[in-house]
Amino acid sequence: MEPCLPGAPGPESCDGVDNSCNGLVDDGLPTDARCFNNLLGGLPGRGACTYGAYRCIERRWTCVTLGTGLPQSEVCNGRDDDCNGLVDEIPERQPDGTERPCPSAP
After folding, report:
1. pTM (global) more than 0.85
2. Distance between terminal CA atoms of the chain?
3. Which long-range contacts (CB under 8 A, 24 or more apart) does 54-60 make?
4. How many CA atoms lie within 13 A of 51 on its CB side?
5. Using one digit for the tens of pLDDT, what is the confidence trace for 33-84?
6. Reduced DSSP (H G I as helix, E B as strand, rest coil) percent helix, strand, coil of the chain, to 5
7. Order of all β-strands in the sheet with 52-57
8. Which of 2, 15, 11 is nearest to 60 (CA)?
9. In this structure, what are the phi and psi dihedrals at residue 91, rounded to the nearest 5 degrees?
10. Inter-residue contact 44 to 53 (CB < 8 Å)
11. What secondary structure letter does DSSP report for 96?
12. Beta-strand (E) ranges in the chain?
């Protein structure tokens, strides 16, 4: 643990230091700021994609997605797996090689 900095205690910061001089490092930081990890595409809050929250991890603010929450390949299941705002927009391949809309598509 980093020692408390000399002088009056101050507000905590995501820096690995006990800024408030209470014996705890990076404690009491806000955790309600929403974020979205868009590395895989998709739209936050749509379909399977959920917002995450910023967390102080190893002296850096990092977007942590809660649950699965990331875009996946679209499949015929009545859900927006790829988080593009459309449900089951891909065709379903039939045993004879033809394609037809997913039965669950709107």
Report:
1. no
2. 56
3. 55/31, 56/14, 56/26, 56/29, 58/16, 59/14, 59/15, 59/16, 59/26, 60/14
4. 8
5. 778 766 556 676 677 777 788 888 898 888 887 666 677 788 888 888 888 8
6. 0, 20, 80
7. 34-35, 52-57, 60-65
8. 15
9. -75, 155
10. no
11. T
12. 34-35, 52-57, 60-65, 91-93, 99-101
Q: Which residue do the tokens 């900095």 mark?
A: 5
| Cβ count near 19 (within 10 Å) | 20
> What mean pLDDT, rounded, does the chain reach?
78
Q: Mean pLDDT lowest for which of 1-5, 13-17, 35-39? A: 1-5
81 vs 6: CA distance, rounded Å = 52
The one-letter amino acid code at 100 reads R
